[in-house]
Amino acid sequence: MNKQVGNVQEALKGLDNGMTLMLGGFGLCGIPENSINEIVKLGTTNLTCISNNAGVDDFGLGLLLQNRQVKKMISSYVGENDEFERQMLSGELEVDLIPQGSLAERCRAGGAGIPAFFTPAGYGTEVAEGKEVRVFNGKPHILENALHADFAIVKAWKGDTEGNLIYKATARNFNPMMAMAGKITIAEVEELVPAGSLDPNEIHTPGIFIQRIFQGEKFEKRIEQRTTRSK
Amino acid sequence: MNKQVGNVQEALKGLDNGMTLMLGGFGLCGIPENSINEIVKLGTTNLTCISNNAGVDDFGLGLLLQNRQVKKMISSYVGENDEFERQMLSGELEVDLIPQGSLAERCRAGGAGIPAFFTPAGYGTEVAEGKEVRVFNGKPHILENALHADFAIVKAWKGDTEGNLIYKATARNFNPMMAMAGKITIAEVEELVPAGSLDPNEIHTPGIFIQRIFQGEKFEKRIEQRTTRSK
Amino acid sequence: MALDKNGIAQRIAQELRDGWYVNLGIGIPTLVANYIPKGIEVEFQSENGVLGMGPFPFEGEEDADLINAGKQTITTMQGASFFDSATSFAMIRGQHVQLTVLGAMEVSENGDIANWKIPGKMVKGMGGAMDLVASADNIIVAMMHSNRAGASKLLKACSLPLTGVACVKKVVTELAVLEIKDGAFHLIERAPGISVEEIQSKTLGKLIINGDVPEMNL
Amino acid sequence: MALDKNGIAQRIAQELRDGWYVNLGIGIPTLVANYIPKGIEVEFQSENGVLGMGPFPFEGEEDADLINAGKQTITTMQGASFFDSATSFAMIRGQHVQLTVLGAMEVSENGDIANWKIPGKMVKGMGGAMDLVASADNIIVAMMHSNRAGASKLLKACSLPLTGVACVKKVVTELAVLEIKDGAFHLIERAPGISVEEIQSKTLGKLIINGDVPEMNL
Fold first, then answer.
1. pTM to 2 decimal places
2. CA dist., res. D102 & res. D153, Å (int)
3. Quick check: D196 contacting A, CB < 8 Å?
4. Angle at A90 between CA A87 and CA A94, to 5 degrees
């Protein structure tokens, strides 16, 4: 099944104000840069973005925040993103902060047809407020629901025209689970190859989860914390 | 962390009567043959075996059934295993039949610290008896619990001394989830290579889930339904 | 004339739509892959962990590590992928597979299906069937209209332990194509030369017949 | 003399045991990797999806696709593996990681920890910390004994929003090593030259001192 589309514009067709998006990546690592830049251009507003982080002030999802396109963020970590923190504290931005493992598992659950599961993460904290608590093996757990998105946008290293994806190193992170949970899942890849070029044994995300795939025009792949040691 | 043990005998140390085992494989594909043959020799009894199938009468887990070493099977499919069906119908063998997807997910949950989750599979059937039912998005689901095992025994194609595993084709099946859910997980592999020989990006089961690994002496890899077409 | 197994498979293949991922059960459903209509592309998923299943291998090219859910040796198409059982059922439960075709012992007029157990006599197990029928939006049953003893398999209510509840959308037998809705079997098509009366006489569940029932076009 | 950050990391490194998988948080915990005792082997897990983390890369060898949970460029050791975030937290939640070391703003005498939010002022988010503290059997907090305003961070009860409940097993500060059990901090070791009185005066939570408290052996 050929999932290839010509470019990022075609990939984002149907994206509309008020929609819920999932965006892969951890920090700036493995984020769908091309799609984010295009959404900035499109000016789509009132978005709910499910993403572990929100980039930095001037790169990644931070651009959507600067541009006031985001109504709500569902994330685990604000980190050093000043604009994110400012909008959250001022109340301009709705924010649902959830534990990173629960975020990953809730996306997977959404894609896997598991409507809810129990996890110990967040018991006894703000995160547990309003949630069912149940004790298993003497340990309290809370019930977490699946997450879904109108569009899930992921970034992979290599992809084929069937939508099969291979990620590189820690740029994998949230991409595979989010790929599963989108009504429409868009993959932008560094290298798009013909079906049959990838070893079926080495696929990280099977093409069944992908509706549209394109080769990104440019990947800046900015590094957030460049740390080195001396030789 | 070196997980290599010398042979199957060493790998199975500590296996005792009455224990719960998980055994990877689907039909005869991807089963830990060497370990099963050794358990037959050891004569360990009263075992609870969690495995999608129970092999055939004279190969795989069928050997443990023939030898009356199994007290209880937790499986999804009996199929054409006559001895399995006979022992079950006569009541000699306790059998817990559960939907294949629930079996896979319950093993994963056991390994992932998820004590329970909701699934639509089995609602309105015998499988749902005694289980909590809850409606999500208008659809009834049942609550399924995680599965755990004293020993999980899996089979991989390649493995390294750190316990990292790569499976081949559909011999992957239940092995990755069961590898996660054993208190002690044993991997038997066709080829054992030094740490660093496998591409970190291509690992299916990270070594953290494996406690013992060895290269199997012999793999018969019997085919259950040899089907071909003519040229 | 009543259809043979290949005829049933051929008729079911007409239900395929371009771009669908399809899970075919053991038996007649497997044969559906031989009749994919021209001009459409579908991809077959097998719940033991493969997407993009191809035809059976040539003799001598069988790979013990490459089988389908019926434990038959298979091949793969270009663009195939392998994955574990949890991911496989994530595809199924998460409704990423558009069509499931499977066999049955009994189907009821409200879409219940029984196909895994005859208490005290036979237990094959449900395998992946309970996950498939509880999840898929589109479920077609391929089976004979009557069992070996001659009793109808299209019933008011299933007598055998259920595999799933109110889930079957269509049944294709050697005699007819029936849609299930509003608590009844709706006769859509007859096998060539089979009379409505014969179908009626062999269907125990509520059967709705609306006007002229066309013959299948195979 | 009070320890510096490296000293705290060095003392925590003494808690490592051969064969452990370890998750190190951002800040002081990251430094623990520099002091692995001779003769033991541990492997570092980072929750963004890598097992077998190595040292920082040489200049010019940074890879934007290879970072740790602190978003720092890293390298990998032989035998490393990459995986997605769900699998990463399966390792953590499933207790396959034997030790978690993380920072904190406050720790209470019953082992509660707060480290993600100051209402109205600062919100960093919990990241993976809530999963880590709710899951791991063995949790060590690395932090300064007092905050910048000079107030104790070892309290009867946390005043900030909690990250986890009754989960911290040990706290290592620039002044002391304290074990948490039975609803109190138990003073195990003093930093070289630091008096029991100083530690007592800077600890607001219940502090148990049993006999002579030895100095750390660094």
1. 0.98
2. 14
3. no
4. 60
